[in-house]
Amino acid sequence: MSDETSQATVVERVPLHWAVAILVALVLPLSLYLGEFNFPLWVAFIVWAEYFALGGKPETWKVIIPSLPWGVLCGVLWVAFGHLLAGLVGDFLGLVISCFIFITLLVYGLRWFKAWQNGTLAVFNGFTLFLAVYFTGTIPLIGPVENPYWLILWAGIWTLVHAWFGWFLGWFNIVLTFPYQKK
């Protein structure tokens, strides 16, 4: 690394606190004016915060983007299998049995990929965000909504799309500061 590169610092033309306010103003209509398709921006902003917690650099995509689906998938499987078992052993016991299977799989699976190990926060956020979206019903009711498995799957897709949007918001928030390198 040359001395010139090591001496350079990044300077924000727009302070971060203003860039955050601008970002929120820009995306707020997505949560207010799309009717049934309103974005659950709380999902996006949780991952937005994750972007900054993991360093606030574009490279965080290598951790966040592949880690979120593992958490969402384990959440989808937990709820779906729990629903399937509910007819046999009741709602609560079905979820408890399914919990032991899929929470164990969620944590055990962290050892399979380095990105998941580094992205444990994203994995667990994917899981808990799915549960929040599913149990609060913050999904548009489209498709065969009388099928509970469709609703579970759709909640997983909706969660993942908005979580990935949250990574984009983190990246875009830095862009809104119009940073430059000062030597």
Give a topology summary.
Layout: H1 3-7, E1 9-12, H2 16-32, H3 41-53, H4 61-89, H5 91-108, H6 114-118, H7 120-136, H8 148-175, E2 179-182
Antiparallel strand pairs: 1-2
Helix pairs in contact: 2-8, 3-7, 3-8, 4-5, 4-7, 4-8, 7-8
Report what the structure shows.
The protein has 183 residues and is mostly helical. It has one domain (39-175). It is 72% helix and 4% strand. The chain has a two-stranded antiparallel sheet. The two termini are 14 Å apart.
**Radius of gyration from CA coordinates:** 19 Å
Query: Which class of secondary structure composition applies to the elements?
Result: mainly alpha
Helix fraction?
over 70%
Could you give the distance between the termini?
A: 14 Å
How many structural domains does the protein architecture include? Answer: 1
Q: How are the strands of the largest sheet arranged?
A: 1-2
Outline the biggest β-sheet. Answer: 2 strands, antiparallel
Low-confidence blocks of residues: none
Count of DSSP strands: 2
Mean pLDDT: 85
Q: What spatial form do the alpha-carbon principal axes imply?
A: flat
In percent, how much strand structure appears in the residues?
Answer: under 5%
The number of helical runs is 8
Q: Which H/E pattern describes the elements?
A: HEHHHHHHHE
